[in-house]
Amino acid sequence: MNKLVLIAGGGIGGMGLAVALSRAGLNVDLLEQTPEFSEVGAGIQLGPNAVRVLSDWGLSNALQAVAAFPDRLRVRDAHQGTVLGELALSERSRQLYGQPYATIHRADALQVLLQAAQAEPRVTLHLKERARSVCELPDGVNVLTESGRHYMGDALIGCDGLWSVVRRHVMAGPAGLVPGNDPPLDIPPRFSGHIAYRGMVAQADLPDSLRTQSVTAWFGPKLHVVQYPVRRGELVNVVAVVEGRQTGNPQGWSNDASRTELLQTIGAVHPQLRDMLEAVTLWKLWPLNDRPPMTGPYEHAQGRVALAGDAAHPMRPYLAQGAAMALEDAWTLGRLAQKAQATDSAAPIPWADLFQRYANGRWQRNARVQANSISNGKVFHADGLLRWGRNAAMSLMGNTLMDKPWLYSGPPDLA
Ligand SMILES: Cc1cc2nc3c(=O)[nH]c(=O)nc-3n(C[C@H](O)[C@H](O)[C@H](O)COP(=O)(O)OP(=O)(O)OC[C@H]3O[C@@H](n4cnc5c(N)ncnc54)[C@H](O)[C@@H]3O)c2cc1C
Questions:
Q1: Which of the four pLDDT bands, split at 50, 70 and 90, describes residue 234?
Q2: What is the CATH number of the domain that holds 351?
Q3: What's the predicted TM-score (pTM) here?
Q4: In this structure, are strands 150-153 and 301-302 parallel, antiparallel, or unpaired?
Q5: In the chain, how many domains are there?
Q6: Which of 230, 238, 310 to mutate to test the pocket of ligand 1 (most atoms within 8 A of CB)?
Q7: Percentage of residues in the chain with pLDDT exceeding 70?
Q8: 408: CA distance to ligand 1 center in Å?
Q9: Distance of CA 230 from the midpoint of ligand 1 (Å)
Q10: Residue whose CA is closest, atom 19 of ligand 1?
Q11: pLDDT value at position 180?
Q12: Is residue 248 part of a domain?
């Protein structure tokens, strides 16, 4: 039986999903809107839960070759420089969770997944194909792209990010299919009030005092900065988040930004932090948009169409778990498909049932991560009494506050 799944979007989530589904024995047509598979020049942290997914796909060596494995997470006051708390990462993470904590250039993460997908004969990658509309039929799904082509599959998974087109179809819900019923309205993504400035610098270009193999988070009123090594530790990724108005292209991840403007906005900070910000010459600006935490499984799937990653649950980056949740979604779908194939590989896959199982099993964890990310943002940027309370709590139980066993021991296996 020829089982074909369509995936809209070839970012970290969509590419991971192509690997997971092809390994389960399914054919995959992946549609990506851009002319090449590429990622912006920025880093991401991959907690042990995300590394577990990559390791299960046999990608540990590929990850080892390009990622960095920071020794610890250190939180410092952005003005005084005081160390507020510390959590040992790499070795401790291996001991507690069986996987290390990694930090990686986004382009390297995508490349690892792309190479794995390209090695699978069941995966066909289509570039310059932007999904425009979705039509669900009794025995399949049809996707019309901007180029005018139609793609037909047994099921569709939207991995098309924050501004997802596939989401519109899913959120129309069953009511949308009943004449006379108004489909439930989906709210558009909302601006968080936070803007991220992102940049990178080679360790070789830094003085010894600024070179680092740790994750450092600097907290100040209405701002925070996170820095960590990527690309085998050869580069340092820096992200500075400030509060402000929506600026630049809201859908753009790479608006031009100036270092002078960032330094002015950040104001007087600890000299070591200022020196690091000054060392980065090229900055890009990223207005942070999200959606409120998911409120039910209906935001994950409808019939033969499902959503994964940011298309379903975009989040603020303050738990560093958006890509990790996209990978967890992909892994879960792969496991469920594998189980369906193992039960009877000749029978058609009951996609609507499989997607309901996925949606019921995933939405609460994704919602919890979204909610935690929002509250972390408030704590990171705290001023006054809340800032005092945060600092006191961190000095008393920093380890407990920074470690997340419920998260890092995932993903839960629903198969
Ligand atoms: C400042 C910042 C820091 C972050 N740090 C971390 C971190 O440390 N750790 C972490 O895990 N996460 C982090 N994240 C979150 C992470 O970047 C996202 O959650 C992750 O990229 C989501 O992956 P995705 O594949 O779901 O979506 P995306 O990465 O948005 O990929 C979507 C893909 O779909 C394509 N596409 C869009 N529309 C269509 C269409 N209609 N048809 C075809 N293709 C389409 C796009 O071109 C793109 O390739 C951070 C985010 C930000 C903003």
A1: very high
A2: 3.50.50.60
A3: 0.97
A4: unpaired
A5: 1
A6: 310
A7: 96
A8: 20
A9: 18
A10: 322
A11: 56
A12: no
